[in-house]
Amino acid sequence: MTIAKKIGEMMERGSWIRRMFEEGNRLKAIHGARNVFDFTLGNPILPPPPRVQEALAKFAGGSPAEGHGYMGNAGLADVRAAVAAYHESLYGLGFEGGHVVMTTGAGGGMNVLLKALLDPGDEVIIIVPYFPEYLFYIDNHGGKAVLAPCGPGFGLDAAAVASRVTARTKAVIICSPNNPTGAVYDAASLERLGRALEEKEREHGTEIYLVNDEPYRKIIFDGAPFPSPLPHCRRTVVVTSHSKDFSIPGERIGYVAVNPRMPDCARLVNAMTFTNRVLGFVNAPALWQRVAGACQEASVDVGWYQEKRDLFCDALAAMGYEIVRPGGTFYIFPRTPDHDDIEFVRRAGELRLLVVPGSGFGLPGYFRIATCMSDNDTIRRSLPLFEKLIRGYGR
To answer: Which of 54, 90, 205, 386 is deepest in the core (most CB within 10 A)?
Structure first.
């Protein structure tokens, strides 16, 4: 069968995450699920919060005549208003329903936004290590990805980002809390980045949008606050989903929210409303829009994930793995004992440990662990294998 050459090439270099997940399924069929330690896919398995389950039952049991039809492409007005009110309670920037577009998850939201912003050849800066789908999302809409390194401890290096801005730069995508590192960017770094982008706008006479991909915004540990880029850059756009905080990644519900201080922000919202339709999403699922509107403050138990972070980080660090303790998400991103992360992952697979190489996120020499397992016993039983693995490197 003939498929597009470009798509064939993309498939060949496709996601390491999915590749390792499929390898896990193969090994489980051979050895049994209990004997394979699969830490590849960030697939939440906690039940949705009670409030979300109650809202779903309520709206699913309503009259079919009430709200399963077409709607405005930006989403239900009352839901958009509820999302805006939640943001206004957090940031006080003047959010209203007209600043929000409901989308089919963060992936749908990112494509809707980039379709609205990019002309062919426009550049989008992303931070290494990055969520690999960004490369494809940018390419979908004729853009060019430009890579900028992270700072120490996987932090945000505003100067490194600014040094890569050109007259063709249309957007900078950040991800905080970060996939794959778990880093949470601090307010001071976000303020420096906001100032730097405004200086570059004046230098080039352009508009540069700061996009935060933040589906892990509520998965933050140690009681720390979430520093949002919204107060620090007037062209900030938030793209998010409820996959993680509601623990419903298969339902694909999210939204894009634009900073009310953005000049002519209504034009961007109108553009995204249009691209939501022409990309084929039409609108986000009506049922889950209603649930989201009723449950903006709901979240899964973050302590459940923090417990797993602590168990893993304490044990691996004691073995000799170099780890930056993540501030959020359900990922850990240790350094491999040598620079060859692909070989490390191969050796891990021989022990039936499944992790994702850092090369899949643009940063060789590291590997990602996802801690979305049902109990701590899985972690504990895997630890002797992680120790055997690093001992094989003479550590």
So the answer is: 386
CA atoms within 13 A on the CB side of 348: 29
CATH topology classification for 5-48+301-391: Aspartate Aminotransferase, domain 1 (3.90.1150)
* DSSP 8-state class, residue 136: H
Q: Dump pLDDT digits (tens) for 203-247.
A: 999 999 999 999 999 999 999 999 999 999 999 999 999 999 999
Assess contact for 99 and 86: CB atoms under 8 A.
no
Whole-prediction pTM? 0.95
Tokens coding 139:
């390419």
Q: How far is Cα 194 from Cα 235, in angstroms, rounded to an integer?
A: 9
Phi, psi of 366 (to 5 degrees): -135, 170
Is residue 341 a contact partner of residue 368, using CB atoms and an 8 Å limit?
Answer: no
- What residues does each domain of the chain span? 5-48+301-391, 50-294
Helical residues (DSSP H) of the chain, grouped into ranges: 5-12, 16-31, 50-60, 77-91, 105-117, 133-140, 158-162, 187-204, 265-278, 286-294, 302-319, 341-350, 376-391
CA 157 – CA 190 distance, rounded (Å): 9
Each residue's pLDDT tens digit, 241-250: 999 999 999 9
- The closest alpha carbon to 378, from 147, 33, 97, belongs to 33
User: CATH top-level class for 50-294?
Assistant: alpha beta
